[in-house]
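[Primary structure, fold]
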Amino acid sequence: MSTLLTPVDASARELALAHVERARREAGVIPDIPPGTPLRPIGSVGVIGAGTMGGGIAMAMANAGLPVILVDVEAAALERGLQRVRDNYAFSVRRCRLDEATVAERLARIQGATSLDALAGVDLVIEAVFEDMALKRDIFSKLDALVKPGAILATNTSGLDIDEIAAATGRPADVAGAHFFSPAHVQKLLEVVRGAATAPDVVATLMDLGRRLGKVAVVSRVYPGFIGNALFRQYIREAHFLVEDGALPHEVDAVLERFGYAMGVFAVHDMAGNDVGWQARKAQIPTRPKDRRWNDLILELCDMGRMGQKTGKGWYRYEPGDRTPHRDPEVESYIVERSARMGIARRPIGEDEILERCLFSMVNEGARLLEQGVALRASDIDIAFVTGYGFPAERGGPMYFADRIGLQRVAETVQRMHAEHGYWWQPAPLLLELARTGRSFRDREAAR
């Protein structure tokens, strides 16, 4: 068995869970924003975009007792969004999670509108439209002229530059990121993204709102993907490269599940839908930098109609009415043949390499976020991954896990991977420095 797969004993589990709980408490501590900072009042909320995300955010607000105006410029799209909200609540009634009276109260808090004018008096606006910078800037420019002074203007972007969005307004201090995770009325993680000009009381207010919504809120500075997706991209990328290099999807997933994930990478892809962002990613191919390796296998699966569970086939195949993933010789043969076409000599890949490439790539990126001040603490990264990305809580989070196994091992592996695989494995200077001096991420934070 891989040394990284050593089972977690009772003592180690207790320590890891204590770290997770401490991380949850510490995430609300922001060094330059004193406790007791006056908050901006949030008595009403506007949500722009009635898609899955916008509807979920509206539900999260209504569930917390806040009146919401859900705006979509297309009447048909607005009605579809409101019907999706009604269906979600009806499902909760059928599952005996809510009663009819509670649902009626919550639905009464959600109003629909087809004009931004309806948002003139709200205290907070959360934009949740497509990930298109020009569209978002246009919306924020209009909000700037419309919404009352002092209202918070937040974007639910999962990675676009908050500062560029804020620059479309004359009040960048009022602009921040509020990155919810889908479905927003269920998922517990909220990234509060602080732009260069975001006012401290805006950050404090959004962190408090996260608490009111029953979420774990973590502060991030502006960075591609912020905290969560910045690391998650490394995890996904390496899993896909492993499949090109010699592993098969079920082998990668099996190792990750033995490590403690509820589902492996490829089973998650199939559940979410391989076509999420499919066309947008295809459109980016011609302009991508040529100095690094890319993996487009998931796009090719979509071109083949393999969208995942919803089409009965993706990285795995599925029987009608059953979400259990089954190995599929068709896709496995395609993967092997594709490697050959690319000139890649496939080889057996062991458990240690699978875990090192998926996990240590995240730790290296996490170290980069810490040295650049994107994340305040290593524990903020840990709680984000335990809360929002399925990292096993009994292993404490990626940064805690790295501390436990020793940063010297992590740094040596990252340097070796950089020599073998190039660009994506450039070692973070902080990781190398901590390894050289025999310190951990926790030691660094204790000394600050």
In short: The first strand starts at residue 45 and ends at 48.
